[in-house]
Write a structure and sequence with these properties.
Elements: E1 14-17, E2 23-33, E3 39-48, E4 57-61, E5 66-71, H1 77-86, H2 91-109, E6 128-130
Parallel strand pairs: 4-6
Antiparallel strand pairs: 1-2, 1-5, 2-3, 3-4
Length: about 140
Amino acid sequence: MEESYEKYLPLGTVCLLKGGQKFIMVTGYLGVNPNENNEVYDYMGVIFPMGIISTDINFMFNHSQIEKVVFKGFENDESKEFIEKIKGITKEDIINGIKAAQSAKATAEAPASVQNSGPDMVDMGEQNIVNPTNYNNVQQ
């Protein structure tokens, strides 16, 4: 990275990833890729300036993949406090939270006769996780 930036840049930050050809704008944190054994990434983002191309495509990347920050997003006390909180979250915390949410959803959607039969996992469906350094074939 050209300058030294602390991990977890503000939402709206626009950066270029190592080996990337297009800018990525940070839209979220701690994304989970179910297609890679629930790998947890530091950031989620969209191609800049196109934004969301499809609701089933997520760009996920780690802080170490950032080559250059070209614009640092908006920060205020609330966003700084939020970032401080997520710094203490582990991969296990995230996976356990997902499992708990899936279990709660499965129980709420199940017929009354099976609601007490144990937590069933809900199929989250297929997600297309795109390596943001290799998205030349994404239509613009």
